[in-house]
Amino acid sequence: MTDEGMVDLLMDDAKERMKGAVEALDADLSGYRTGRASTALVERLDIEYYGTPTPLNQMATITVPEPRLIAIRVWDTNAVRQVEKGIMASDLGLTPSVDGQVVRLPIPALTEERREELTKLASRRVEEARVAIRNVRRDVLHHLEDLDLPEDRLYDLKDDVQEMTDKHIEQADAHGEAKFAEIREV
After folding, report:
1. Residue 63 in contact with residue 39, Cβ under 8 Å?
2. Does the model's pTM come out above 0.90?
3. CA of 180: how far to CAs of 29, 93, 177, in Å?
4. Is the CB of residue 36 less than 8 Å from the CB of residue 68?
């Protein structure tokens, strides 16, 4: 493979890995309980279903009928109790109520202390995403320097990698700021 072909592969790989770091951050932040109901709080929750841990979104329809309520309609009536137990055993701190095939999860308002705690957790997660993005940059620059490229081409590529890094860090920061605003919202 030519050096230019390798450059294209490295740049594409860097873009995908940086994008992946931002998407992972977004997925993590969506699971933070902010006093507002969101299906993301419970959809990836593993429930013991016939001896197998199964994500809740594969066993039920999850909706938000009100701003502070999550309704989980379990498809298999025999699994309603397992869903209830799974929610109780999780670290969500929510108490489900069962009504036939529907498990209701009221979302209480956050205390000021819990808001601060969530903000710190979200900040830490945003910083981890920034570090992951910068690690991709470092890795790509290292591989680019190993190639036999003219110095001016290498300089231009380093600028491109830095622009890509800055763009993805801005996206991570924007996701973090949006979550911080959501957490602070009363």
Report:
1. yes
2. no
3. 10, 20, 5
4. yes
Q: What is the mean pLDDT, run by run of 10 residues, along the chain of 186 residues? A: 83 94 89 73 83 88 88 89 87 82 85 83 92 95 88 91 96 93 77
For residue 41, the 8-state DSSP code is G
158 lies in the same domain as 178: yes
Report residue 63 CA to chain centroid gap: 19
Distance of alpha carbon 101 from its chain centroid, rounded? 29
Both tokens of 45, joined, read 């929750």
CA dihedral (53, 55, 59, 61) in degrees, to 10, reads: 160
DSSP 69: E
Q: Bridge partners of 60?
A: 74
Domain range for 52 is 39-106
- Tell me: do 137 and 174 sit in the same domain: yes
Distance CA 64, CA 69 (A): 6
Distance, CA of 129 to CA of 163 (rounded, Å): 17
Query: Cα-Cα-Cα-Cα dihedral of 24, 61, 183, 35, to 10°?
Result: -160
